[in-house]
Specification:
- By secondary structure, this protein is mainly alpha-helical.
- It has one domain (2-39).
- Helices cover 90% and strands 0% of the residues.
- The protein contains two helices and no strands.
- It is rod-shaped, with a radius of gyration of 17 Å.
């Protein structure tokens, strides 16, 4: 159980340190989908 908790803690630390990268990737994907939708109009 301690190993499982340590793994969860390390994943949450990794997510806290890199949240801006996830946001950047997500917003880039949204921008690409929006641009492709606008081009098809």
């Amino acid at each position: 159980m301690n190993t499982f908790k340590a793994g969860i803690d390390s994943l949450s630390l990794l997510a806290n340190l890199n949240w801006d990268r996830f946001l950047f990737i997500g917003m880039s994907a949204v921008a690409l989908f929006a641009a492709s939708y606008i081009v098809t109009l």
